[in-house]
Every structure is written in structure tokens, then in C-alpha cells.
Amino acid sequence: MPQRPSPLTQIPADIVCAEDYERWAERNMSSAVFAHLSEGSVADTTLRANRRAFERHAIYNRILVAGDHGSTELMLCGQRFRHPFLLAPVAHQGLFHADAELASAQAANALEAGLVLSTLSSTRLEEVAAQTQAPRWFQLYFQASKNATLSLVRRAEAAGYGAIVVTLDVPVHGVRRSSQRLGFTLPAHLNAVNLKDIDDGPTRAISRDDSTVFQGYMADAPTWEDLAWLLKSTTLPVLVKGVTHPDDALRLQSLGVAGIIVSTHGGRALDGGMASLDALPAIRQAVGPDLTLLLDSGVRSGTDVFKAIALGANAVMIGRPYIYALATAGALGVAHLLRILRDELEITMAQAGCLHINDIGPHTLFSPSHLC
Amino acid sequence: MPQRPSPLTQIPADIVCAEDYERWAERNMSSAVFAHLSEGSVADTTLRANRRAFERHAIYNRILVAGDHGSTELMLCGQRFRHPFLLAPVAHQGLFHADAELASAQAANALEAGLVLSTLSSTRLEEVAAQTQAPRWFQLYFQASKNATLSLVRRAEAAGYGAIVVTLDVPVHGVRRSSQRLGFTLPAHLNAVNLKDIDDGPTRAISRDDSTVFQGYMADAPTWEDLAWLLKSTTLPVLVKGVTHPDDALRLQSLGVAGIIVSTHGGRALDGGMASLDALPAIRQAVGPDLTLLLDSGVRSGTDVFKAIALGANAVMIGRPYIYALATAGALGVAHLLRILRDELEITMAQAGCLHINDIGPHTLFSPSHLC
Amino acid sequence: MPQRPSPLTQIPADIVCAEDYERWAERNMSSAVFAHLSEGSVADTTLRANRRAFERHAIYNRILVAGDHGSTELMLCGQRFRHPFLLAPVAHQGLFHADAELASAQAANALEAGLVLSTLSSTRLEEVAAQTQAPRWFQLYFQASKNATLSLVRRAEAAGYGAIVVTLDVPVHGVRRSSQRLGFTLPAHLNAVNLKDIDDGPTRAISRDDSTVFQGYMADAPTWEDLAWLLKSTTLPVLVKGVTHPDDALRLQSLGVAGIIVSTHGGRALDGGMASLDALPAIRQAVGPDLTLLLDSGVRSGTDVFKAIALGANAVMIGRPYIYALATAGALGVAHLLRILRDELEITMAQAGCLHINDIGPHTLFSPSHLC
Amino acid sequence: MPQRPSPLTQIPADIVCAEDYERWAERNMSSAVFAHLSEGSVADTTLRANRRAFERHAIYNRILVAGDHGSTELMLCGQRFRHPFLLAPVAHQGLFHADAELASAQAANALEAGLVLSTLSSTRLEEVAAQTQAPRWFQLYFQASKNATLSLVRRAEAAGYGAIVVTLDVPVHGVRRSSQRLGFTLPAHLNAVNLKDIDDGPTRAISRDDSTVFQGYMADAPTWEDLAWLLKSTTLPVLVKGVTHPDDALRLQSLGVAGIIVSTHGGRALDGGMASLDALPAIRQAVGPDLTLLLDSGVRSGTDVFKAIALGANAVMIGRPYIYALATAGALGVAHLLRILRDELEITMAQAGCLHINDIGPHTLFSPSHLC
Ligand SMILES: Cc1cc2nc3c(=O)[nH]c(=O)nc-3n(C[C@H](O)[C@H](O)[C@H](O)COP(=O)(O)O)c2cc1C
Ligand SMILES: Cc1cc2nc3c(=O)[nH]c(=O)nc-3n(C[C@H](O)[C@H](O)[C@H](O)COP(=O)(O)O)c2cc1C
Ligand SMILES: Cc1cc2nc3c(=O)[nH]c(=O)nc-3n(C[C@H](O)[C@H](O)[C@H](O)COP(=O)(O)O)c2cc1C
Ligand SMILES: Cc1cc2nc3c(=O)[nH]c(=O)nc-3n(C[C@H](O)[C@H](O)[C@H](O)COP(=O)(O)O)c2cc1C
């Protein structure tokens, strides 16, 4: 294996946007790890759709709007955010940089961005919490037993996480062709530290003729009852991640979730062409103006953030881009990336005549049918 | 001629989907045989359309659907199928692997997939039937004389085929530019063994000024009367393959066919841009919910299968992909391919919240006009 | 200048369609001549549109249509044609092959295709007529003086041409960037022989401040009065070539033309994106079912011919493809090309269930909006 | 740094259109300067949209329109223009050619094209005015203080500029990734000479926690009151440049501006996908037939000019193309480019049956939905 370059300690002048970090990161990883990070699922249709969707909307520039009170501040689930950006939960960050989630947390602190820590983090959730001043939420995967799930929730509460984000779009593991071709496997030392001492009960036995999908994964997948139980089991606001159907959104709303994250898991769960951004308007329309909606999957610039907000999101989460930055230059890279996105968003808002996040709405977009 | 690699006896780790088999197969064949297998007709417009059509529909992911009773079982023409996949009739499989149709049958047995044997198989229909436990149907080309046609039907009945699939979309041979350019011809030893002892009557003489198409092929092409005769001549269910117009579907239904296969012959018959998948919804709408509809042409993944079923098919047939697998690794390859497709379908169903084939319907799709 | 290969005297097996002739022809010509032949005008938008337009329509295959009476015969302006193909008027064929228009005529004879001779032919119109048994029409460019125009018409009548095709879409010479870049000029020996002894009157003087377009070309361009005069001056049927607007078509119809050729001059006149095929339906709708309509520009296969007829044309003209064939293999090449197109059309008709040209109509097409 | 070729003193035969000048110019500049000139902003979405928009409209060719009175003359804000072309304001032309704005002016004189001089010209506005006989306007950027702004206006009035063009679409500097990556900076000797002796007051101090966009640029950006003040402060006609929203257009109209320039600043201001041409029809519809509307961004040929006028513009401005010509061959290049565009426009008009600018309108276009 050729020696990989070590992460940078200074940002080169030719990194000026999220895509530049992707190019740099590719050089800093083995091709199997890069495949694991960059791939979607099956034929990557949703992965591509997530990018193209943003091209279907144009932004009106507006003139002669001025003032010194502009800001990107906003409230989400009762918590104040400086910008509408959160770092999405990305598992096993030790794969990408020795500092792993602690580097991401450091950058979030510096730029006052929200951070959502994955159940599958390489760093214990308590350790990350201790290092994070920025708003932090905990992403929860239901464990096979309620006890195991509850113990994660209790630890998150105790560590001071401000909300639980339950991810529900991967009842089965997606089909990941590229990393499978390159034989990607998680290195042994990168086990899921948060789950280390968790007793998840006996594994269900499936017979030779059974389907691993149906008699395996789906037999144990979480249900609406499980979610209702979770909502009752914690006083933290609970957001659900991985929703694209308005009916699911409505049912979640009536169940009392604090928010919904419209997401295709970055195109890594169900493949088939639905972009998160395309799913967003119908969901906003279904749940009305008040429920907190976040969007992720495919956000790569401040322009994209603007469009997501205009179409109904309160804020967005960023996935791969910050991991590319992490792999390239650790905490410094992630902070730089967040700075770029923030600048791009502010410039876009200024040009669109929006001095506050609340000024951004459907009326700021031009979405003719030919933009498809 | 350079020595071709022999078929594999083990599946390399980098074959993870149908398209991978296509790449491998290209190395295992002469370019003329590969052209013959992969090409469409005229300008390959329909060939391409068959793939693009699947991109016009996206699948909703649904959350919190769980249970241990999921399955892909279904009934077709009164017969039970473990999965909604059949191996499409592909002529002269001796071109691609020494074991020819027997390898395909072996794989169908192993994976419990349906098999449709071509009139033009390289192996006698009786021999294939004897080796096949999986549901098997016989694909019939009308012969010039009714006697010849009838003798094929009687043999299929005797050998235990469960249905007759009459292919009607090639009254004339399609325009096959690529294989013509490379001078593809069927090797002498690969004659159509099923037709060996069949007396098909004298060939029609056409005069110098006649058109080989109109006074040749079309003068002898089958008619609605011929089909009606066939339906009366056998007790087996008869399905018609090669339909894209709803009016034809309706007329077939009133004639009493057991099912219709919406197909463009993999883009090898009429060129001109109509994808099988695009033709499907109008045909389902015309014939109502009960008539058995299959689709083929362009299916390459479990996602595609899901979409075809959502748009009205009961099941699909797979053509070239299994032949690519056959050429690459014989029965082992075909079985592996079927396993991949089955896994992809089950995963897609799980992610879409469908635990049974019947749960898949138009409501599971998002098909906005911009997905075109 | 490198030695060009001489035209072939036998057709290589790898020429199986019109596009193959284009590739071969490119090798048989200087790049300047190839540029002159293949280019469109300005940014080649219309050139490209002419091809893409055919992809917006798909053809339904139909089943169980048979019979021995199929044929492609048709009547145009009272004259019988074996096939709905005419060789479009293409100037200066001496550029492409020593036998020039005589080779084209020989091929038209052999395949019974119609031939339209350009005013600017390299061979005298009388000489071509003497060698042509196939239906032949004369393409007329208005000359600056009525006398000159009339003398061409009289010669065409005397030589036995069956119709006059007046081309009206080039009042000014189009912008031809590629050939201009490569410095294409007509070789001195290829003057327009038909215009040799024609006295076209004094040239109009334009002042230094005048526009060569407006005070030059347009001051002398033909008018509706000129066309009315022409119609009265000959007993031959007069067709007008170069129409895309339905209002022009209607006015031509009421003036009494025998037919209209919907054409963009192969994308060589006005650039700007209108495909001939896109203009056709509105024109057929405007003029009703009876007026003879031809289409040219972009026809490359029998499938294209079928679509043009389905959208309202009675027949089509082929431009560049036969010139590519001429440059590649003289009369033999042109005959081969016509044979290919005829076969492709017959096969397409058979597959679409059309045994006669009259069976082809809008109902044979599937033209959903996503095919754009 | 490799030696760049010096500007040409003669036009090579292979420059025949605007795009050719772009290719030549790329060789005549450092890559950083070329990036600065050619780039858009953020992801260049609007840059690309500006070109693609023209492909969504096709032009009808019309036949038998003739006459010797054709012309491209028009009136704009009471001033006579020979052609509907103006050279757009482009800053710092000293970057591209030693003669800078004087070369552009010389070409404008020769071809009687309008010229709009940038506030940020490399040549003093008085010097340019003295060399320009062609219609000339002054492009104004609001300065931080009214005094500074007013002094520019007074100087423009005194120098004989015929109108003020206030550019309002860059309240903040756009995100320019390419030139940033290549480290482009303005050479020290190319300071903005017009602003040299201007006292623009103290710079606003912003605190460490402030946003440079919101508390910096936007705090000082011009307002509707500032524009009203400007309109009252000069007797020259005032046009506003950089409008895409019909509501802004309406408000400007009621404020009494002399005209509006529908522009995306060549894709260099707000990125996000809106083409100037796409914004034009709604603005023409909002302001009615009488208000002067210009369009720029993406115009590259006479065909484009025709389409812009057909969709509601009175005239167009050309940006980068003339700068490419300037860099390639100085005044000679710019004059040649203008000649090409003028010829292309006249030829297009002739082919479309329009002998005057007023004949060009929506009825000359065919804009079906498939042209997208
Ligand atoms: C390598 C990788 C690991 C991920 N791990 C998790 C995870 O543990 N939990 C989760 O909810 N989402 C996970 N996601 C999904 C992200 O939270 C997010 O939805 C997605 O990356 C957003 O799309 P983007 O990458 O296009 O911005 C992961 C994504 C990637 C790329
Ligand atoms: C090489 C080849 C041979 C075929 N032979 C037959 C045949 O004998 N009978 C038949 O009904 N269809 C035949 N087909 C069509 C297939 O049954 C099927 O319709 C088509 O391959 C499906 O499209 P796909 O290849 O894109 O999956 C053939 C297809 C190919 C590629
Ligand atoms: C090199 C060349 C010369 C042509 N000369 C003439 C001509 O003399 N008169 C005429 O009416 N059309 C002329 N045309 C236009 C053709 O008649 C016809 O409209 C066009 O070639 C059809 O488009 P296609 O080439 O895509 O088939 C010419 C076309 C080409 C390519
Ligand atoms: C290098 C460059 C500098 C420019 N400078 C100015 C300027 O100083 N003032 C202004 O109003 N517009 C400026 N523009 C915008 C142009 O006036 C015009 O809107 C744009 O170039 C038109 O698009 P086009 O380049 O596609 O033709 C500049 C554009 C470029 C490319």
C-alpha cells in the first residue's frame, strides 16, 4: 500500500469550496475507504438525484435591500443556532482522521455549528460531549432490545445532548456496490465504542430457507410502537431522520416528534431516484409551517442551503463534505469548510435580498419546468 | 483469434451486480458474439430507452414497517413462484457456454426462478425439462405450417412445460447493425435442435421485384386467426410476448390469453424509442387488475423489478444479464446473478415498506415530470 | 495535400447504415470539403435539433398483422413513386465524385427513387434528365431577372422534369462557420453549368454605408408576387421548399402550389433551433390532409422516414447521406444507401403493423412529453 | 511565467465567431486573468444557464419577404443607435490590452455600437469620452458617500455621457472560485483611476463577531431612497442594471427610471440558475411595451440577439466576447467581433422575414416545452 500523505496542517490556497475538499480527500484515503465514503447505494441513482435536484430551482436576485441588522441566527427545537448548518451524524470517523469526532466537534465549536453525533461514533459519546460547546444532538439507532436503546438515551441525556435524532431509513443495510467491489471492511480497532458494553440480547436464529432481509433484519426492525415508546421514555426533543413520504411525516407529527429530517441518507439507503430536496415541499405542505424540518443529502454550497430553506427546511445537515475536510486537514479543514459554507450562504442571502433566515421562502425561487 | 479465457469456476469478489457481469462477459466472447448479444436494432434507440425509462420513477422510502412474515412469493397463471423473476427465452445459448440451457436451468433450480425456454434453444426441450425442477414455460415461435407449430406444442406439453409463451414481435428479423458490421453468423453446429426433424413445408417463392419483407416474411407472418387456433389447440395457459399497444392487449385479453408479456424484445425488434416500462401503465390500465402481466427489457437490478411491479407488472423476465453471467461463470454465474437480484429486490421492498409483492403499487412511486 | 483514397468499387461489409457512410466519406474528402458538406449554420443548433427531434417520438409495435400485399408505393403530385424517398437537391456534386449528379441519377434509376436536381448542379440539367428514368424534379433558385428564371423553367420543362421545386429559405447565404474557418471555396472548374449562358442583368450597386444583407440580398429577394408569376408561367406542378411556419404554408396553399417541402435546408439556412420534424405537425394541421407535404433535414434511417410520415409528410428527401455515399462509392454507394433505407422502412412498417404507406399515421406513434 | 504572444495586428482567417475569440484569448492571458474573465460565481450554474436559455427558443424562418429598406436602426432613451448592440461595462480593461477602454471605444466608433463605460475603467472617463463618437453611457457604482457618487455623476455629465447605468446586483462581491484558486489579484498599477481623488469617507468598523457580509457590505449597500435621490440629482436618463424580478422592475418603473437592464452580471453575481433570458419575458410583461429594456449575459451571436429582442428586449449588451476580442487583437478585434455579430443579426432577421427591429417579436419564435 502506497504511503498516504498525512493530513494538512495548513489550508492550501486552491481549496475554495466543498468539492475541492472531495478531490483532496480522495488522495488522502485508500480507494476502499474513499468508495465507502463517497458511494450511494445500488446504481447510485438517488446519490446523483440529490445533486441534480438543486439545479431545478433558481434564485431571484433582488436589489436595493440594505441594513446592518442581517444575521443567519435561528432557533431549532428551542435551541439557538448561529447558522442553519449542522454536522450530520457520520459513523466511524476514526476511519478518516486520528482525531475523529473530536476534530469535528472542535470545528463545530469554532464556527458555532450544530453537531449530531452518530451512535456508531469512534469516540465515546461522553468524551465528545465534554469537548463540545456547540449545540449537540445524539443520533440514535434502535438497538435490538429496549434496554440497550434506553441505555444509549440515558447516557446521551446525562452527557448533555440537546436532542435525540432517531434514524429510521436503514432497517436493512443498503446495497453498497463500490465498497463491496473493493472489499472494504471496517478495521478491527474501529469498533462502535458506544455499543461496547451494551447487552443486546440473543441474536434471532433464521432457518436456511428464510430470507435474511425479511426473516432477519425486518423481523427486528423498529415499529411505530417502538417510536411511541421512545417518545415517552425521554424528555429530550426527538427528531426522526430519513423521511421522504408526507404520510410518514404527518403520522410522526401527530405522534409528537419535535422535528423531521428529510433525508435519503445521502443516497446510501433506498436507491431509486428520489432526492431529499424533491421530497421536501410536499412534506412541508403536509405538516404546516410550524414543525421543525431539516434536510440533508447533496448540500454542497451556501446556494444549496438557501434553496433548501426556501423550499421548506429550517436548517440543513452536511454529511460527506465535512468528512472530506476532516480527512484532508482535521479540525482545521472542517472549520474552514464551515466558514466557506457560511460565507456562501450570507452572500447568497444578501444578493437575494434576504437579511434573515425568515426572509427566505418559496417566493425567492424561480422554478420553471424547464429547469429539470 | 486470441484465446478467450475459460469460464470462471469461482465468482471474483468484484462482481457485485448485473452490470459487472456484462463487463466480464465482454472479455469472454469474440466481439462479434458480444455485439450479437448486446446490440439492439437500427440505431439502438429502444435499447437505450429501456434503461432510461426506469430513471423516470423514484421510490418512496417508508419507515417503521416491520414484521417477520415478509416474502416475495407470488402466483402466476396458477403456478407458485418463489420470486418474481423468470429467465427470458434467449436463443442458442450454446454460443455463450458449453453447458448452454442446462446451466441456466441448473441455476433456476437452485434459486427457484422461473425459466422460459426458447424455441431456438441449443438443447432439446425434452432434455432441459428433464433437468428443471423450477417452474418452466416454453417460448413458441409460430412455424410456417400449423403441423410444425403443433408438434412443438405437443412436445412442450409432453415434457411438462407449464405454459406456452408465444413471441409475436418479430414477424421480420430486426435490423442488427453491430453484429452485421462484425460479420456475426451462427456457427454451423449451433442449429436449432428443436426444429431439426420438423417438416415446415415448401418455402414461398418471391419474384425479383417483390419485397422480401412484404411478399416474403409478412406474407407468412402469424395472424389473429392463427393465435385463436393455438389457444384452442392446447390446454396449457398461453401468454403472448412482445406487446406494447393497449389495443393489442385488450384484443388478446378478449381472445382469452392467460397473460401478456410487455416487451420490446430487449430493443432488438422494432427500433424507435418505446421502452417496455413506458408501455406498461397504459396496458395495465386497459386490461384491469386481474390479467397476468410480465415485463422484460432493461431490467438490471432489484430496484428495476420493484418499479416494474409498481407500474403494473406481476413479475419480470431477465434477458441479457443472465446470459452475461452464463458466459462468465456458467450455472454458478447465473445463480449468483439471481441471488443478487433477489437480495436487491428484498432490500428495496424492505426500505419501501413492502413486505409482500402485493404491497407494491403505484402509490409506492414518485414520478414527477422532471424525472424525464 | 495528402492523397485521398479513390472511391470504392465494392461496398465493405462494415457499411450497414447512413452513419457509416458519413464516417467513410470523411476520409475521402479534404477537411474543408467535409466541413462544407456536413456543417449547419451559425452555432449548428438547427442541425442538431433536426436529429434530436426524431427521438421525441416512439413507434408502437403491433402484432399479428400479416398479408402478402404490402408495399411502399405512393403517388406524389400525380406521379407514381416506388418508395417515399427522393434525393434532395444538393449543389455542385462534382465536389464529391467525378460522376457527380450522373452517379446519383444512376442510383435513383436502380432503386426507383425520386431525384431533385439542383439549379447549381455540376452537370447540365439536360444531361442528367437524359440519364434518368426515375421520377425527376428540378429545383429552382429564383434568378435576379425574370428572364433568367424563366429560361431555367423552360429548359426543365423541355428536358422532361416532372415538377419544379422552388427553394425559398435562403434569401441570403447562411453563416457557415466551419467551412469559413477552413477556407473552403468552390474550385474554379465547378461553376454552375446551368447558369453559364444566362444573362442575369446588371448587379445592383450598394453604397458603402448600406448593408449587404438589407440593401444587397434582400432588395433582390423573391416576393409573393414573383412566386405567383412563376405559378402562372409553367404548367408543371410547383412545390415550395423551405417552409416551417404554418401561415406561410396556408398562403402557399391558397396561391395554388402543388406541394410544400418542410425543410430547414439541413440546418444550413436560418440557425436557431427549429427542427423540420417539429414544424411538420402544425403545417399538416394547417393545410389539411390533401396537400402534398414532403420533409427533409435529419432523415438518417427508415425509422426516421416512418416518423416523418406518421407526423404528416407524404414522403421525405434525403440530403447529406446520399452525398456521403456518393463520395464513398459513387453510384454504387448511393444505390446501396437507398437499399438500406428502403429495407429499414419496410421492416419498420412490418413491425408497426403497417402494410401500406397510408396505414402510417399519428396513431402509430407514442409521443409522451418525457421523450424530449 | 511563459511569454504570452502579443496581440494580433491582423485577424486570422479562422476567427469567425465570438467563441473563436474566446479560444484565442485564452492563449493571450495568464490562466489567472483568464479565470477572472471567464468565470461566473459559486458553481457557475447561472453562467451555464445563461447560455442554455437561448436553446429553449427556436426562430421561424419566413419566406418571400423582400425589400430594400431593411435596417437595424433603433432609438434607446431618445438616442439613435445603428444596431441593437452595446459594449457592456467591464472593469479594468487594462488587464487585457494596453489600449484598454480606448481600444473598445475606437471599435465602437468604427461600428457605431453603443459603449457603456465602467466606474472601474482603467482609463479616465473624460479621456474615453473624448475619443468616443459612438453613443456612450456611464456605468455607476454607488460610492459609500453621496458626495463621491455625485462627483462621478457630475463628471459623466460634463464629459458628455448620454445616460447613467446604475449597477445594483453586486451589493456584495460574488464568490469567484476559479480566480481564487489561481490566486488572481488586480495588479497594483491597475487601480480604478476614476476613483483616485474621490474621498469616500471613513470605513465602517465591524466587530470580530460581526458578519462581513451583513454588518460590512450590506450595512452600506444602496437603498431605494438612494436611487430616488440619484434620479433627482441628474437630468441624464438613468437605467438600472442587474434586475431579474418583475416586482423590482415595476417599482423601478414607478420611480421613473429610463430603462432597465435585465442582467445576471454574466453569471458573476448571484449564482443559482436564473438566466437573464428566462427572466426577461415576465419583466416585459410587468412593465408593458414602452419601457426601455436591455438584456445582457450569455449573448454570443446574432441569433441570440434576435431571440432576446423577440422576448422583449430593445437591445442587448455584450460583455466577455468583446473583451476576448480586445485581448486577442485590440480595437481591430473588437471591431471585427461587432461586425460578425451585426452580420449574423442581419442575416437572421432576413431569414426570419424581419426587415426592421420592430418586426421582431414573440410571434417570430417557436418555444415548445421540449426545447428545454
Ligand atoms: C460514511 C457515512 C456514514 C454515515 N453514518 C451515519 C450514521 O451513523 N447515522 C446516520 O443517521 N446517518 C449516517 N450517515 C448519513 C448522514 O447522516 C447524512 O444523512 C448524509 O451523509 C447526508 O448526505 P451528504 O453526504 O450528501 O451531505 C452516514 C453517511 C456517510 C456518508
Ligand atoms: C441474444 C438474444 C436472443 C434472444 N432470443 C429470443 C428468443 O429466442 N425468443 C424470444 O422470445 N425472445 C428472445 N430474446 C428476447 C428476450 O426474451 C427478452 O425479451 C430480452 O432479452 C429482454 O431484454 P433484456 O435483455 O434487456 O433483459 C432474445 C434476446 C437476446 C438478447
Ligand atoms: C452541400 C449541400 C448543398 C445543398 N444544395 C442545395 C441546393 O442547391 N438547393 C436546395 O434547394 N437545397 C440544397 N441543399 C439542401 C438539401 O436540399 C436538403 O434540404 C438538406 O440537405 C436536407 O437535410 P439533410 O442533409 O440533413 O438530409 C444542400 C444541402 C447540402 C448539404
Ligand atoms: C471581467 C468583468 C468585469 C465586469 N465589470 C463590470 C463593471 O465594472 N460594472 C458592471 O456593471 N458590470 C460589469 N461586468 C458585467 C458586464 O457588464 C455584463 O453584465 C456581463 O459581462 C454580461 O454577460 P456576458 O459576459 O455573458 O456577455 C463585468 C463582467 C466581467 C466579465
Automatic annotation (TrEMBL), chains A, B, C, D:
InterPro entries recorded: Aldolase_TIM, Alpha-hydoxy_acid_DH_FMN, FMN-dep_DH, FMN_HAD
Superkingdom of source: Bacteria
Oxidoreductase as UniProt keyword: yes
Claim: Oxidoreductase is one of the keywords in the record: yes
Cofactor(s) the protein requires to work: FMN
SUPFAM superfamilies xrefs: FMN-linked oxidoreductases (SSF51395)
Chain ranges of the FMN hydroxy acid dehydrogenase domain: 10-370
Keywords: Oxidoreductase
PANTHER family in the record: FMN-DEPENDENT ALPHA-HYDROXY ACID DEHYDROGENASE PB1A11.03, S -2-HYDROXY-ACID OXIDASE-RELATED
Family: Belongs to the FMN-dependent alpha-hydroxy acid dehydrogenase family.
Protein name, per record: Alpha-hydroxy-acid oxidizing protein
Organism: Paraperlucidibaca wandonensis
